[in-house]
Amino acid sequence: MRAKFLIMAASVLLATSAPTSASALGPEPSASQAQSVDVFQTGGDAVHYSSTPPPTISAHGWWLDRDSGGAKAKVTVELQMQSGGSRRTVATGSKTVKQGGGSARRANARKTCVGTKAAKWRSRVDVDIIGAADSPNKLETPGKTFNCDV
After folding, report:
1. What would the pLDDT profile of 61-93 be if each residue is shown by its tens digit?
2. Are 145 and 119 in contact (CB under 8 A)?
3. Among 15, 29, 60, 122, fewest CB within 10 Å belongs to which?
4. How confident is the model at residue 57 (pLDDT cuts 50, 70, 90)?
């Protein structure tokens, strides 16, 4: 089984982190324990108002890997709101999809606004490739403030 490590990038925001290397995850495996390592990319768009009523905050997540063949991954999106000093997950969505993004190959999390008090929102995207080990890292999109609270 191939080990999958991830490189993260928020497509709209272009917020990237450095690739995760095997050495950053622990000691190097011995020659008898070595596995081939593949790299995939986790994508997430900027948290935004949904285009369909009622007023709703929405976020999407997907993955890309040109070497994935027909592999699928469970993509989970956590929509988080910050009020005061604490951040909490207010909606979660997940979907098992092939790589690529687009409306058919992404997961979505949505939360309908209850009030109009300003709040800071972000999303966290986790990709778990079916049948492959991968990093526990999650993509966190930068926070954006909307007049929407729950």
Report:
1. 999 988 877 889 999 999 999 977 889 999 999
2. yes
3. 29
4. very high
Question: CB-based contacts of 100: which residues, under 8 Å, 6+ apart?
Answer: 62, 64
CA–centroid distance for 21 within its chain: 19
Task: Judge residue 120's burial from the number of C-beta atoms within 10 Å of its C-beta, 0-12 exposed, 13-18 middle, 19 or more buried.
Answer: middle
Token output for 20: 């995760």
Rounded average pLDDT over 16-28? 33
Instruction: Report DSSP state, residue 16.
Output: B
Which two structure tokens, joined as six digits, stand for 36?
A: 């081939």
Report whether 9 contacts 43 (CB < 8 A).
yes
How far is the C-alpha of 85 from the C-alpha of 103, rounded, in Å?
Answer: 34
How far is CA 106 from each of CA 77, 83, 118, rounded to the nearest angstrom?
A: 9, 28, 28
Q: Is 123 helix (H, G, I), strand (E, B) or coil?
A: strand
The 3-state DSSP class for residue 31 equals helix
Segment holding 131, helix H or strand E = none
